[in-house]
Amino acid sequence: MARPNATLHLFQKDIEDAEKAAIEAEQEKLRKAEEAAKKAEDAKIAKAEAAAKAAESGSTAPAPKSEGATSSVNWDAVPSRDITLFFPGTASIEWIHGREHGGKRAFTKGDRCIECHDSETMDMGEKIVTGEKLEESVIPGKRGSIPVTVQASYDADNLYMKFSWPEGSHAAIPFADGGKMDPANQVKLAMMFGSDDVEFADRSGCWGSCHDDVKNMPGEVDDATIKAYADASRLDTSGGITKYISESRTDIEYKGKRGAKLGGWDKLKSEDEIKAALAGGGFLDLIRYEVGTGKVEDGYLLDERKMSGGQGATFTSNLTDGIWTVEMTRKLNSDKAGDVSFDTDGVYNFGFAIHDDFSDSRFHHVSLGYRLGFDKDEEGIEINATKQ
To answer: Which residues span the domain enclosing 23?
Structure first.
């Protein structure tokens, strides 16, 4: 007769085996779904490339809509990385540190988000976009994820990046006039670059700039509170509180203990401290491109989002046979404050977002944090820019 402890041990082992089998089955299901999505995307991209080549050879195939000059990069010779962007809802850096996030302990110990979630982003986006978690303002029919093919190259002067993804069907936004938050722009592309000097950038890319107390988030600061703040004149609050990073604050509340409000919008460091952070690389370089209007903005995140005209980057875009393609050309070196100057011996943190289907504000699709290197085809470098 088996001893009670032995029976209990066998029972616990059966439960663990069942849980493991369930997890493996779910992972296999996700893998097959992503594989199917990737095959469909590859087919669309191949069709688009064939149409483009036919147009170049004088065929009657329709020419793509294009803005700006085309780069001279031979993209056929450049490796690609497939990245699935997902709808994040109200997931902030404070939420990442909170009880509802199962990976908070791993994150605080230094694990990168992609180590747990790189193969789960499609499933994560579906749960959030449908309101199962982290989203109360549901947009019926909005896709939860976007599969994007990313390529990077460089020469003596420039970094070149190419992004390709399938166009989605329109899902009217119920809380926006005409169902579109930004009617002038069906698509916008934004990207951030930063060094390891920025807290959390090595783990989560640009996620450290997304706080619970910024515009359209659960803890959004109201106008009366902003006006009552003694140092409000130091921030451009005309559109609410914008993204910021911890290098500009004396304190940020991540866990909300004893009812404390999350975030730290009103905990500004001195002007001299913020200037020192900017000079020392403690910022996130931000570039934004509006495909509809052709507008390019170049700026950075530190105490707030500061944007200006796009002196440092140019873009081209086209939509052909249901595939969006956007190419960026950006100078490697810059003497402008808030610009990352790329040393091709270095490695940089990178994240990007797509405002799809006339969306705006936080209603975008985002990437996890990835690492960009230059001819560094090695572990830990997800996007490897190859020299032309």
So the answer is: 1-63
